Amino acid sequence: MGECIRKHDLGAKPQQVRALVDEQAESYEQPGEVVKWFYSQPERLAEFEGLAVEQNVLDWVLTQANVEDTTVPFDELMGGKS
Question: Which of 10, 52, 65, 70 is the most exposed place for a label (fewest CB within 10 A)?
């Protein structure tokens, strides 16, 4: 997976990490202080970086996937019929 992330430049971008931090900080009384707290220790950003990479990989996979809708009876879907 790491090779795929490097090959397709799917790593976390600073603006993505910042958007995720800002979103988290909005739920606090002093969001600006929360943002400063996260950025004061780079290891605190690791969770947000991971989320950004995860979203980038998901977006990339969806652009590569060939999705086809198929109607399946409920019983067949649940394994009742073959």
Answer: 70
| Residue pLDDT, tens place only, 1-38 | 889 899 999 999 999 999 999 999 999 999 999 999 99
Distance CA 28, CA 30 (A): 6
Which residue is associated with the tokens 């995720």? Answer: 20
**What pTM does this model have?**
0.74
DSSP 31-60: HHHHHHHHHHSGGGGHHHHHHHHHHHHHHH
As a whole number of angstroms, the distance between CA 55 and CA 48 comes to 11
Q: Which two tokens stand for residue 71?
A: 């109607």
Q: Rounded CA gap, 26 and 10, in Å?
A: 26
For residue 57, count other CB atoms closer than 10 A to its CB: 16
Q: Where are the domains of the chain?
A: 2-77
Rounded Cα gap, residues 22 and 12, in angstroms: 15
